[in-house]
């Protein structure tokens, strides 16, 4: 089996793993402090480097994050982390491509720890790019660019488009898949002004949608707050810190907070316009891309471990800022228990945005949208990914029945755009005026209508606002 691919950023030798070829740490761009990504060029390293074969068998540099401060961690972390990993069945093939963007609240993650390992060693090409995190990728800083992390993702997609034939991918069959912040990134990309996304045929969103697109003022206030907490005069001064220094400053400000909504794509009237909803609808009408949207029924189940006082006085405002009061009034009764409160937090963070995004697409266009209502692993955040990744022998016997069926449905969608399992004659229903969803229970797989699960109208699209 051929193990070498020649790309626009160099020639690389991979390694065979379970009859597939893995290429690790392939560079696709340069990351400079608070600036949008620049294309990678091997020629910068000398004329002989262009045709030289480089061994792509070791993990690339990972994005700066909290782990980078752990001296015992053996991974390499850095601001210049724009590399991607590829798992392909055959470099001479023509397989569907899945580009996975990892989640982690825009604060954690990297291609060293794939979240969708179930995609490896299937009849698809699985690509996982790095993108910058926290202030490095999503901070709005005086003298810096906006949507830096989004530009990293766009450059990775462009690299895949340019090099699909080199690693056995079908450039006309690309799916973007993401969990949490990865899904939120993909939604923002599809709602952006970039024409690159017109070449994407399908998207899969696990627990994430457009809810973290935020106004410029909120993004600026987050960076200013981080500076204030560290006695730094101006956000412009963040340019002068080392990589570790900038991460330490961020950690100091975040300490004690649940900061998973503090960062995200920004309405800058450049990459993302204030009328991003119109842009999203125009793209689906132009390209007819297809969508799977998945959410758990109790996404923040693990928050029950926190005290009620902390949930009400700290966590609620950390997640939603000034929108917390609006959400409490609309989604919570006057009298409520801790379970009610935690359920409301998960609904506001994930389930409600998922349903609203599905509604936006289907009520205003002829978009093909498939929704999943997951109740595996206590319906908590990322439960469906845990379910898909787990070796069948480690699953509770009640969980085993449907795992392969769900995997087949997702793989059918990736390959053909139509999720259907012949063995059980089950086709994932379209989310239309009947609001049908696929409900995944530990021991059941069925189609149900959520037409009665209506949510209040006129809620803000932007989850976190300062």
Overall description:
With 466 residues, the chain is α/β, with parallel strands linked by helices. It has one domain (4-449): Rossmann fold. The protein is built from eleven helices and 20 strands. It has helices spanning 134-138, 148-163, 181-190, 216-229, 243-254, 276-287, 308-320, 324-331, 338-363, 383-389, 397-416; strands spanning 4-7, 10-13, 15-17, 20-27, 29-30, 38-39, 53-55, 83-88, 95-101, 125-129, 169-179, 202-206, 214-215, 266-267, 290-296, 369-374, 420-421, 426-427, 436-441, 444-449. An eleven-stranded mixed beta sheet has the order 3-4-8-10-9-11-12-15-16-19-20, sandwiched between helices. Strands 1-2-7 form a three-stranded mixed beta sheet, with no helix packed on it. Strand 19 (436-441) and strand 20 form a beta hairpin. Helix 4 (216-229) packs across helix 5 (243-254). The longest helix has 26 residues, at 338-363. It starts with a strand and ends in a 17-residue tail after the last strand. The relative contact order is 0.11. The model has no long low-confidence stretch (mean pLDDT 94). Its EC number is 3.1.1.-. InterPro entries: AB_hydrolase_fold, CarbesteraseB, Carboxylesterase_B_AS, Type-B_Carboxylest/Lipase. Keywords: Hydrolase.
